[in-house]
Amino acid sequence: MDYKSVIAKNISKVTELSEDQIFKLIEIPPQKDLGDYAFPCFILAKSLHKAPAMISEDLCGNEELTGNGLFTVKNAGPYLNFYIDRSKYASDIISRIKASGDKFGQTEDGKGKTVIIEFSSPNIAKPFHVGHAFTTILGNSLSRIYDRLGYNVIRMNHLGDYGTQFGKLITAYRLWGDKEALDKDPINELLRIYVKFHEEAKKDDSLNDVARENFKKLEEGKPEERELWQKFRDMSLVVFNKLYERMGVSFDNYNGESFYSDRIPAVVEMLKEKNLLVESEGAKVVMLDEYGLPPCIILKSDGTTIYASRDIAAVLYRKETYDFDKNIYVVGTPQALHFKQVFSVLKKAGYDFADDCVHVGFGLVKFKDMVFSTREGNIVLLEDLLNAAVQKTREVIVENAKTRGQQMSEEEIDSIAEKVGIGAVIYTYVRSGREKDIVFSWEEMLNFNGNSAPYLMYTYARIRSIMRKAEEAGIKVSENPEVLGTLTDDDAYSVVSALSGFESDVKKAASSYEPFIISRSLFEIASAFNSFYNNCRILGDDVDVKESSSRLALCEAVGNVLKSGLYLLGIETVERM
Question: Which of 12, 344, 348, 433 pairs as cysteine with 291 (C-beta 3.0–4.6 A)?
Fold first, then answer.
């Protein structure tokens, strides 16, 4: 039950306001003694010709607002404060979580609707660094969130597999390439010759002319250039896919920039027919003055394509192929202008679905007192970051096991360290709003007592340990609504309240493209649970069986929601730590 919606519906019955208007105004009071929800009556003052405090006093006695005893309603100045019946609240929330298992928050809101999410999109033949991880992790999380809400999600990896840099790579490989090194370590060998090309081109500018000619041959589909390009692409994907698999990331489509190259003539023709294409310094552009934007280049002066022309072709293809309801691009904030231009060109050309295209930007990645022995100088490779996180996590797990006297096999330690270490990295990217810069800190990433993946995963593992002990003791989780309704003390109620917000947080995360709303919700749930755990005995000879069974139900509910939420962030849980 969505209690906020129930309150909005009841208030709407006794006022002239719509449920939607009321829903947006309902607040969470800053203090617990002021209730669970509050409605400010200021909006009614003008139409009722009364002071807000008088309106709240008049409405307070209306039985319609109590929801048949679900709420107690009190007035405090201009506010109507709603106090939920704790017994009914606890029973309802925990029962619904029990029924949903680890899929709590699942809805059919998106049934029959298709959402395309473009993310990761690394450049072929270049190392996968920590900056690429931002789009990969955000996009993976958003894909899971929209999937949970019932949408048909198409995960697109728009590979950077085209452009003049491939003319440079082809030229460099012919001049300095080492086939044996390419087969052994393709990314590093391709990077080596790419760097060498730029070094040599500074001395001999004619190399750039050769590179442009080779890219033109590639665009024309010449066999030799096409064969080399395909080889570079295939080898790069083998390397990338190992990282994706390790992080639990998958895609439905790998159509890169190259896929759309033969569709660009149709785009150019369409823009010509609509009299939108004009010449500017030899290039073909679309003027966007009415949108307050600079011209969008469609073809360069030498006739070759550019990012914008390929992206326009991609949008048209996606609409034709998938008839999307939303087309989301998880790409760095510096590309904001580019996407504004692309969407504006489509809008100017009469394609209203341009309004369904969304750019989801994100901040930069920085480091705080972190030193990596990277293979590429000033580039911090994602693989190095993951390996370092896993190794450091392993050291913590081994030390903790010794302290507690736990017996764990090397295989189990490795498995837990892998999941927790990777989870710690992923969580760092989704812990705060996506437009904020990320500052990596080992101390924060691997803090088992703070806002981190290890803290959330440890809380889940603690719950699983409690459930195993309960099973051994023969104590079952209560499903009796009356028993669940006994969870009304402050500690238990704080947990129930935190759990109740998770469903709406999943929806908010989708509508705002902000996975951090889920990470924030999980941290609040885990914090409330650990306070409950420290203050309330769950198992033991001195604990009443009925009380144990109700508290076990609360534990199980928290475990289910933590697992559900961590999955939505792209993090796998562990049974013990």
Answer: 344
* Domain that residue 14 falls in: 3-84
- Domain ends where: 84, 104, 122? 84
DSSP character at residue 434: T
Same domain (yes/no): 76, 223:
no
Same domain, 236 and 342: yes
Give the integer Cα–Cα distance in Å for 257 and 387. Answer: 31
Instruction: Looking at the structure, tell me whether residues 248 and 347 fall in a common domain.
Output: yes
| CB contact at 8 A, 568 and 144 | yes
| Same domain? 14 vs 141 | no
CA–CA separation, 197 and 194 (whole Å): 5
| Overall domain count for the chain | 2
338: nearest Cα among 301, 304, 295, 302: 295
Q: SS3 helix, strand, coil % of the chain, rounded to 5?
A: 60, 10, 30
Bridge pairing between strands 277-280 and 283-286: antiparallel
Same domain, 163 and 255: yes
Q: Would strands 114-118 and 152-156 be described as parallel, antiparallel, or unpaired?
A: parallel
DSSP 269: H
Counting Cβ atoms within 10 Å, is residue 57 exposed (0-12), middle (13-18) or buried (19+)? middle
**3-state SS string for 32-53:** HHHCCEEEECHHHHHHHCCCHH
Torsion region of 502: left, alpha or beta (phi above 0 gives left; psi -120 to 50 gives alpha): alpha
**Residue the block writes with tokens 């790409």:** 331
Residue with tokens 């703070």: 450
pTM attached to this predicted model: 0.90
Q: Are strands 365-367 and 438-440 parallel, antiparallel or unpaired?
A: parallel
CB 427 within 8 A of CB 571: yes
Alpha carbon of 288 to those of 297, 304, 357, 378, 510: distances in Å? Answer: 11, 21, 18, 38, 31
User: For residues 528 and 494, is the Cβ–Cβ distance under 8 A?
Assistant: yes
* 210 lies in the same domain as 249: yes
Regions of the chain where pLDDT drops below 70: 369-378
Report angle CA 167, 170, 172 to the nearest 5 degrees: 105
Judge whether 256 and 158 are in contact, CB under 8 Å: yes
Q: Both ends of the chain: CA-CA distance in Å?
A: 34
SS3 state at 569 = helix
pLDDT of residue 370: 58
pLDDT of 374: 44
Predicted local distance difference test score (pLDDT) of residue 375: 46
Length of the chain, please?
577
Q: What does the angle CA 340 – CA 345 – CA 337 come to, to the nearest 5 degrees? A: 20
Looking at residue 336, its amino acid is A
Residue 519's pLDDT is what? 98
> What pLDDT does 378 receive?
61
